[in-house]
Design a protein that fits this description.
By secondary structure, the protein is α+β, with helices and mostly antiparallel strands. It has one domain: Gcn5-related N-acetyltransferase (GNAT) (Aminopeptidase, 3-Layer(aba) Sandwich). The protein contains 4 helices and 7 strands.
Length: about 160
């Protein structure tokens, strides 16, 4: 029997499980997002199946790309557990977090090449705003190899009721 899926706000005590279950290499992303959460800039969300992390997302309280809404970003579900409702659960939890702070909507930025993620967001009711932005970043794979990426992001939003 598969353990139930839950999503909650990350805590500092989750760091060892996150590093083991969803390694980020030299980026140390989990620690960085927890620090930004402590500073009030973001809310770091983690999906769990039992005691194993199976996905993450970040609610940035200042939207990018001209959005007046907070933005769900860095949504990641590893390929072996995709198509199991994890991404959807993280999105819905992010919406609840935004609502609990009195926000009227939520934005999601999606790389123009990520057709699968865009289809998910659109199925969930998110609408393309026509706003675009470009961002570059560096990440490290599990072997420590450096990768430079540039994303061309389109902004989708959902008004929260």
């Amino acid at each position: 029997m598969t353990a139930a899926l839950t999503v909650r706000v990350a805590e500092d005590a989750d760091l060892p499980a996150l590093d083991r279950g969803l390694p980020t290499g030299r980026n140390d992303a989990h620690r960085a997002f927890l620090a930004r959460q402590a500073a009030g800039e973001v809310t770091y969300l983690v999906a769990w199946r039992g005691d194993a992390p199976v996905g993450v997302g970040v609610v940035r309280w200042t939207g990018r790309g001209g959005s007046p809404y907070p933005e769900l970003s860095n949504l990641h579900v590893p390929p072996p557990v995709q198509s199991q409702g994890i991404g959807t659960a993280i999105v819905h939890f992010a919406e609840d977090v935004a609502r609990s702070r009195g926000r009227a909507g939520l934005a999601i930025g999606v790389d123009e090449d990520n057709v699968r993620a865009a289809a998910l967001y659109e199925r969930l009711g998110y609408v393309d705003t026509g706003r675009r932005w470009t961002g570059s970043y560096t990440w490290y794979d599990e072997s420590g190899a450096e990768h430079a990426e540039t994303e061309h992001v389109r902004v989708l939003t959902l008004k929260l009721g």
